[in-house]
Design goal:
By secondary structure, the chain is mainly α. It has two domains: 65 residues, no CATH class; 92 residues. Helices cover 71% and strands 0% of the residues. It is built from ten helices and no strands. Helix 8 packs antiparallel against helix 9 and helix 8 packs parallel to helix 10. The chain is elongated and about 55 Å long. The N and C termini lie far apart (55 Å).
């Protein structure tokens, strides 16, 4: 178990991925579902490691740890690294649905808004985040992103108006 700290430290320090790749991948396959593996997955992604090598154990990790309160960090890292949205979709959208009232959700909302097939429910929760944190500088950029891609969707028109009002009225005053 302590090996995870060595892998993370190596990757965080900029050590050559190739040096530890075979052992790290073997460790992830052997420990794919343990909660603490999230540190290794995240370090691998942030170091630019090959997404395909960890995809299978990562899917298992998300299956076993879907209730983890900090799952958003790994979802964000996966998406920021260019990972397939389907791998984290359920975990990311469920976390946002439960945590849109948390200002730190801004990191995951950024990654989610870069996805092409975002569920309407997730867009609504991002808009609710924008309403709640209307003075956060990221709120306006999230609203603009939604307007540019999803303005034509009737299901979210009221939420768009409420978020726009919450963000724009203070800016215009």
């Amino acid at each position: 178990m302590e090996t995870r700290f060595v892998y993370k430290a190596w990757l965080d320090a900029g050590g050559a991925i190739e040096t530890i790749e075979p052992q790290l991948i073997e460790w992830l396959f052997s420990n794919s579902t343990i909660l603490e593996a999230d540190f290794v997955y995240k370090a691998w992604l942030e170091a630019g490691g090959d997404l395909h090598l960890i995809r299978e154990p990562l899917i298992k990790w998300f299956t076993y740890n879907k209730e983890y309160s900090k799952i958003d960090f790994l979802c964000h890292s996966w998406l920021k690294s260019g990972g397939d949205f389907l791998v984290v979709q359920e975990a990311a959208t469920n976390w946002l649905n439960d945590n849109y009232q948390n200002e730190e959700a801004m990191f995951l909302t950024q990654s989610l808004l870069n996805q092409k097939d975002l569920p309407i429910e997730t867009i609504i929760y991002i808009l609710k985040w924008c309403q709640r944190f209307s003075t956060n500088s990221d709120g306006l950029s999230r609203l603009i992103s939604i307007l540019s891609r999803h303005f034509h969707k009737e299901d979210i028109s009221l939420d768009i108006c409420l978020a726009a009002e919450a963000i724009l009225i203070p800016l215009l005053q």
